Amino acid sequence: MKVAIQGELGSFSHEAAAKMLPSATFLPCARSAEVFDRIEDGSATLAVLPIENSLAGSVAEHFDLLLTRGVFIHSEFHLRIRHNLIAPPQVSLPNVRRVFSHPVALDQCRDFFRAHPGVQAVPFYDTAGSVRHVISEGWKDAAAIAPRQAARRYGGQVLLEGIEDDQQNYTRFLLITKGGKADPEPDPASIAFTVKANKTSLAFALKNEAGALYKALSVFAVRDISLSKIESRPVRGHPWEYVFFVDILRGDDEAARDALRHLGEIAEFVKVLGIYLAAVAQGS
């Protein structure tokens, strides 16, 4: 089984994917769009990508891609994120003047940079990729922020462990597979649907009129369906228009189907992004 991941081998995406699918072959992708390309063109069967961090918030680009691409969420996983300062061999902490990492990782380590005002944070496309880059360049004044496994993979040394601002730092990863782009209810057989599913992710747009959002959310409230997440994203090419992304704590049952049918009568469009089993245990 080939699984596309957002990031290099040794990244947090790789770690999450290995925990979810330990026997798979992983295909690293530098760009998020490439992950979706591999799913749609069939070069990967599944993909794992981060969607939300408990400190930094949502990965906006991935919400946009879920909306526009023909994929379906199969499951989710919570991974405990532990950031480490990793440097090339023979580089000591007092010599470090630049630290490379993914912008989200840098944002989760603000306390480190406040404690080391002489160190510059340098955005890079990936955590593990930043380790490989710093080591391959042979710099004597640079380090990277990444998982410990990146140090083992690329021959770096860990200078500091656990430099994230808060130990309650988790990232929610999604396992996605190919699904019908315009199909609001993909065939369960095509996505290895489980009857244990208890969570549904969806996106919808509303007309800009008074009470529209209230009416949309009421379709869940009147059926005692809880929402675990709601946020809006701007629609590209349509200034000041928005799409709402919602997670409801319900699987494919009669109440959820009735709510979605009711929502379809109110909304301009509704797209079901996934019906799956919610993550109940956070990754260690």
Topology:
Blueprint: E1 2-6, H1 12-20, E2 25-29, H2 32-41, E3 46-53, E4 57-58, H3 60-68, E5 71-80, E6 84-87, E7 98-101, H4 103-107, H5 110-115, E8 120-123, H6 127-137, E9 142-146, H7 148-154, E10 157-160, E11 170-178, E12 199-205, H8 212-221, E13 227-235, E14 238-248, H9 254-266, E15 269-276
Summarize the structure in words.
The protein is of the alpha/beta class. It has two domains: 2-80 and 170-276, Periplasmic binding protein-like II (D-Maltodextrin-Binding Protein, domain 2), CATH 3.40.190; 84-160, Periplasmic binding protein-like II (D-Maltodextrin-Binding Protein, domain 2, 3-Layer(aba) Sandwich). 28% of the residues lie in helices and 33% in strands. It has helices at 12-20, 32-41, 60-68, 103-107, 110-115, 127-137, 148-154, 212-221, 254-266; strands spanning 2-6, 25-29, 46-53, 57-58, 71-80, 84-87, 98-101, 120-123, 142-146, 157-160, 170-178, 199-205, 227-235, 238-248, 269-276. The strands form three sheets. Strands 1, 2, 3, 4, 5 and 11 form a six-stranded mixed sheet that branches. α8 (212-221) packs antiparallel against α9 (254-266). The longest helix has 13 residues, at 254-266. The chain starts with a strand and ends in an 8-residue tail after the last strand. Mean pLDDT is 91; it is low at 180-194.
